[in-house]
Structures are given as C-alpha cells and as structure tokens.
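Input:
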Amino acid sequence: MSKGKILVVDDEIYIVHILDFSLGMEGYEVITALDGEQALEKVKTEKPDLIVLDIMMPKLDGYEVCKNIKSSAATQHIPVILLSAKGRNVDQKLGFDVGADDYITKPFSPRKLVERINQLLGQTITERPAPSA
Amino acid sequence: MIPAPELLWALAAALLLLMEQGRHRRSLKHELKSLRSSYDAAIHRNDELTQASDKMGDLYRHQLLTSRKRASRIKKVLEVATSINSNLSLDVVLHEIVHAVSEAAGFRIVLLRVLNDSSTAFEARAFAGLNREAIHKLEQRPVPRQEFESWLKEEFRVSRSFFISHSRKFWGEVDEEGWTPELGARQEGEWHQEDVLFIPLYTKDGNAIGYFSVDDPVDRRLPSRETIETLEILATHAVVAMQNANLYERLNQSMEQLEEATERGEQVNELKNKFISTVSHELLTPLTAIHAYAEALLDNVGSTHVDMQKQFLGVIDEQSLKLRHLIDSILELSQLESGRFRMTREPFNLASLTHEVAAMLRSTADSKKITMTVETSAPEIVIEADRELLRRVLNNLGSNAIKFTDEGGTVTFRITIEGRAVRIQVDDTGIGIPEETLGHIFDKFFQIDNELSRVYPGVGLGLTISKSIVEWHGGEITAESEAGVGSRFTVLLPITAGDAHVITHAAWTPSRSVSNHLTRLTVEMIAEVMNARTASFMLVDEERSELYIRAARGLREEVVCGTRVKIGDSIAGWVAKHGQPLLVTNIEEDPRFGRPNGHQYETKSLLSVPVKMDGRVVGVININNKISCTPFTEDDRALLSSLADRVALAWKRVADHETVSDRTEETARALSAIIENARRSRLKLNGGSMAGRAVAVGRKLGLSDEDVEALAYVASVHDVGMGQIDLSVLQEPGRLDDATWAQVALHPLRSAEIVKPIEFQEQVTEIILAHHERMDGRGYPKGLQGTDIPIGARIIAVLDAYESMTIGRPYRQAMTHAEAVRELIHHKGTQFDPRVVDAFSQLFEAEENTKLVRAGEAA
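Output:
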C-alpha cells in the first residue's frame, strides 16, 4: 500500500532517478516528468498527492508550472516543493509568490527532502478541508 | 585904380576863407577816407565773423555727428559683446564674433583663425562676407604659428593691432582721425585691396589663441584709431567667449565620458553576473547528482543491492568527470578570452593530425555503427598553426558529429587547400540543427536551454572554445544544417601566419558586441581598399589610457598580442590623442618621429587615422606597406578617413543593437562586397587608383574636403553591385540581351543597397545611384539631365568610362591614354560634363609620359 503518489519533475535524468529511488524506498509511488509541459499533463492525468518541481527546465519553467497548478481549482490543493539550483533570496521569494509550499536548493539531501514530504503530506491530510458540495 | 584897403581885407579874408575851405575839404576827405576804410574793415570783420561762425557751426555739427556715431557704435559693441558671451558652443561663438566684428566695425569681410594646439597652425574657423570657394581655399591653408609671428613687427603695430599697408608710406602713421579728414587727401586715405589689418586674440597670459583679419571697409577708408579701438574691444570679448566655450566643451566631454564609463561599468557588471550565475548553475548540476547519490549510498550502506550500489557509484564517477571537464573548459575559455593566451605556431601535417583524431574517435563511432571517413586532397597538407589547439577543434567537431548522429549514419572529415587557406569540413548525417538555433550554437552554454542536452549530454562550451581557437589563428568557423538531414561545420584557416588576420580577444570594449568576424572583415576591407599589405585596428583601453591591437593583417602574432601603446606616444598614440589623421611619407626623415624603422614595416611610409564615435576617439586604423611600394599620399589619407568614418558608423550600429544579429549580417555583407570589389578592381587596374584620380579631379573643381573624401570613397565602392552580376556576360562580345542589360542597368541600385548599412552620407548614395546618368538624359537608371546629376556622379562617370576604355575587354583592345581622352572629349556635353572632362584631361595630360618613364625605370 503506497503512502501517496508523488510527481518528480526535473530535466536532469539523474535527479529523477535518485528521487525515484529514495521516495520508493520510503514507500511512495513515484511518477516522473522531464519538462514543464509533460509535468502539467501528468498532474491532470495522474492526480499526484505532491509535486517536486525543478525550476530551470525546457519548454515551461517551474515557476510557470507552479503558477498553473495553483491557479486551477482542481489542482491548487496539491503541495508543490520547488527544488532548484537557483539559491538567491529573490528566486525563493518568486517561488513562494507563485504559490510553492516549500523551496529547497540544490545540492540537496534526499533524506531531508523525504522528511519534508512526509511532513507536508501529514499536514495536508489532516488540514485538508472537506470537499464542498 | 588902386584897391582900397577894404578890398585888400576882403581879398585877404576871401583868401583865408578859401584856404580854410580847402583845409576843411581835405580833412573831410581824409575823414571820409578813414571812415570808408573803417567801414571796409568792419565789413571785412563781419565776413570773418560769419565765416568763423559758420566754421563753428560746422565743427559743432561734426562733433555731434561723431559722438552720436560713437555712442551708437559703443552701444553696438556692447550688444555684440553680450551676444557672443551668452553662447557656449564654440562654433556658434566664432560665427557670432565674425558677424559682430563685421557689423560693429564696418568691415564686409572678416576672417577668424584659431590656433590648433596640436598642429601649431592657425586654422580658418569662421567667416563673414566670403563665398564658399574662398572659404574652402582659406580652410585648405592653415597659417603656421611661425608665419603668424613673423607678421608681428613693430613697424606694423597700431595699438594692439597690426596694419600692413600695400604701400610702405603709411606704415605706422595712423593719426587720430584716420587718413581722410580732408577731401584733397581722400585719394591717399582710401583702403587698398592689398591692405591687411589684423587683430591678434591674446589670452591673459599673453598667448595668441587666434586672430581676426578684416577687409573691405564699408566707408572705403583706411581704419581710424577709433575703428581699431572698436576692433580691439571686440577682440577682448572674443577671447573670453572662446575660452568659455572651450571650457564648457571640455566640461561636457568629461561629463559624457563619465556617464559612459558609468554605464559601461554597469553593463560589464551585468555581463559578469549573468556569466557567474550561468556557470554556478552548470557547476551545481553535477554536484547535486554527486551529493544526492553519495547520500543515498551512505544511507544504504548495509544494503545488499550490489547492482544499485554499482550504478550509483557509476553516476558519481560520471558526474565528477563531467564537473572536472566543465571546470577545465571554463578555465580554458577564460584564458582564451582574456587575451593572456599564447599559442605556439609550428608547421605540421594537418592531414595526419586529422587521421589521428579520427582514430581516437573510432571506438565511439563504431559503438554507434557510424561510418567515419577522412578525405584529404593530399597526403601531406602542411600548415602553420598550434597543433594541440587544432586537435581540440577537430576532436570537438568530430565528437559532436558522432554524438548527434543516429546509428548507421556517416561522419566525414574533408581537408582541402583553397588558395592560401585550408578548409576543414566535418559533415554528418545526424539530427541537424533547427534553423532558429543555428545562429546561437557558438554561444557559451548554449546547450543548457536545449532539450537535446538531456539526450546528448555535454558541457555546452565545446563549440565556443573551437570558435575561439579558430579565430586566434585568424580563421573562421561556420555551420550549415538541415534538420533531419545532417550538419556541416566548416573551418577556414590561413596556411601561414603571414596571411592571417590575427584576432586578439581583448577585455571589454565599447565594441565588445562587434564579433571577431566583423572585426576581421573590417581590417580586411581596409587593407584591400587601401592596397596595403599591413593593416591594423587598434582600440582604446580607457582604463589604462592605452591602445591595443584588436585585429591586424600582415603583422606577426607577437606584435599583435604584445603591442600596447600609451595614448600620446608614438604615431598611433598621437593620432588617438589628437583625433587627427597622420600621414608619414618617410618615417626616417620625419622630424616628429625620428626613430629607427620598426622591423615589421617594409616601407617607410605609413598612414594612421582615428576612428571616432560620437566625437570621441575609440580606436585608430593604421596602414603600412602599400602593395605598390610607393609612399602614401594625401589622396590615400582622404580615402582612409572616409573608410574610418564608415567603420565607426557600422560598429556603432552593431554595438547599439547587440541583440539584432541582422545588423551584424548586413554589415558583414557590405564589408565582404567591398572587399570583393576591391580585389576585382586591383586585378583590373594597372596604374593609379580611381580614388586617387577622383580626389584630384574633385580638388581641381573646387569641391570641399568633405565632398572630396566622399568622392574617394565612392570611387572605391560604386561598382560593388557588379559583384552580383555574372561577369562572364560582360566578357562576351556583341550586344547584351535584354535580361543581361536589365541586370547591368540595376547595378547602381544594387551597389547603393549593399553599402547602405555602413552609409551615413546621403550624397554618397546619390552619387552611386547616378554615376551612369548622362548629361543629355539618356543614361540610367533615372535618365537625369545636366546639373540634376550630382557633381560627384558626373566625375565618377568620366573616371569610370576612362578606366573601362583603358583596360579593355577580351573582345576589345585597350585604348591608349590619348585615345581614351579623345573619346571623352568627343562625348563632352552629351554623355559627360564638359568641366569634368576638361579638368580630367588637364590633370592627366602627363600621365602617359610619366608611365612610360616609370616603365623605363623599371626596365
């Protein structure tokens, strides 16, 4: 029984692989996307419980993807963790401005990322409001 | 009868009476006489008085008139003094001064000369009452300071001014009233056209910064002291106004420079920041993978998943290598770009190097079942270059080709010799490069924005480095591609260093955005048009107040890389400092540069001109070693100045529109067309250049300096449009068919179109367009008539015809000079402007004789 479905989006294949491994070990089901457009499609079709999102990607960057997710009623409840090598304060602020729930800079610790995901999913499960009629 | 005593008494009494009466009458007469004389005297005195009174009246009237005149004159002087002082632009001030002098002092002609500190001559800068031709003549002839000082003789001095009379008699004799108080003396007091009156403009510390001279007084009289006083008051004001304007101009200049420097500093910072953020992102990517995989391994130390551990270690290893490679590449690139880089050129066999590189790549190609071949036009192709650097280029191009080619494709290296260059071509049957990105593949880290990087990993610096290496060798690299069909990378390298246009990669400059390609074309264009074996383009490094060589042809690398000239030092430094061209006919004899001839110069003559953007010197163009081995002339100077103006314009346009590559392309096209045209005409020309003839004819017809320079330029480029016409049709005898004729008729339009990106003078375009028009209106393309055709075009028309007649065609024998001139004269008025034909035939009357003599000498 999976703890939840997580969408990992990164154009760097090694990052996708290692997250697949680490989250898989933790009992999550992992689905992946290699660019922004693919990510939005997977959000629609797979309805993940959480999204780990890189920022600098071809086609559509992470900010755009996040904005898109957070502006649609069907998906805005999905927590988004931005995972990026862009480490400046302005980059982080922009991330939170487009609705990200957390911002983790690369290089990162997979262990800590998993902890953060556990935390966020625990929170969101308990705090998620009852669907309105 | 005896008179009675009574009678006697009576007689006596009568006698007495008579006597008394007589005396009385006498006295009356006397009285009357004296009365008359005093009457006469009174009348006379009265006349005198009237005369005196008249005289007094006259005198009074004269005084009144003079003081009125003086008052109005003083008023005028004050007015103009205020007006010249209220302006801050030097040219306007000078203009105001001469007109003020003309008006207030009553001279129709005024000339103002200003001392040019660098040339130490007084240059004519402002004029009143002179026509264009006279102005031109005055401008042409600066007065050297020595000559000016020789005029300052005591015997010419009047107050602080100097009057040199046509006749010695008046020297130093100006009186209070001038020379014309009485009518009788009028003749002598008249102004003579050869009289000279000039007023030096002294600064407070007694230096003459200029002078004005006056002529043609309104009253036709020699100047009175009063006039001279007026002139001197104006002179004092003029000095102050000129110094103010100068100060203001200098202030403005420094302000502008300060602003520019600030702006440039900001731009440099922006560039640096962008580069650092890109580099750090690129470095962080492999580091992220290494970190994540290492941690995962650590967390699973006890795990039995040996395969997983192996795989993770493999990723770490691979990413470490990538990191290492990335760091190496960045270091290498920064070295190449900093200009601190030295390469070692040595002769080696490029064919065998290519085979070596191919052998190294063989295993990768084999693993993808790619057929790799090497074709060389000869087993031994020896070039002078840095062998290791070229290995990098070949390796980069080869591995790229393999990387982007699918299984079963082919990769081919082709090495061929093309004239004095070698062509390296690497073809593949790979996925190709999309058209929209083809222009960016040589940019740093270009791959990062490309989704292909995932499938075809790489650092994204390989092509940038290759390009840098090729350009260091004075070569160029280009890419062509068709998506899905394949790509072709072509490198053209000069075979020997001597043929190279060595490019240095300099620190940031205002022309940073001007690509090396464009820089090389610029130098090449200058060398070709000027017929010079050596040409160099130096840029100003403002921080260090130095000049360095941005690009050069015909100079050795050590010279190009090592040359740094202080602004103000030696020739180029002088030109940069003063912003003026310098023509040295014989460097060994020139007192300004008495020093031994540099080993890089074969001839002693050289020419150096400034390149100015917005009035500021940004660089210097130098040429040496005319191919004809003759010294450079003033004609060459005019042409080179004209080229320098266009180079500055082109560079500025490109620099202003960094992001628009169209500008770079169209500018490159214009330069290439001019280069080609210059080469074509060099093949044709046997004697003097057309530009030289154009300058001579232009000067003879009294054209201004600016017009002459433009004309020299047009003479060098007016037929660039011919390059697009299949020349073989022109080589054939017989009439041209309609289609060919249409092509030929269009060439002026084509020429104008091609040079447009580097043109700023409307007259140049007009001359190019109209150089095939005829006086009788039967020319092309517009059918203009007579003086509707610009004078420049009428001149070019004659020179063009002369040239084509004396050169001949395969089917028509070349005419002699005399025959050609006869032909020109025959078409005077119908085809050609008679004035131009006359000027031409007079100027070059001796041409043929000279040529014969020269030929004799050579033999």
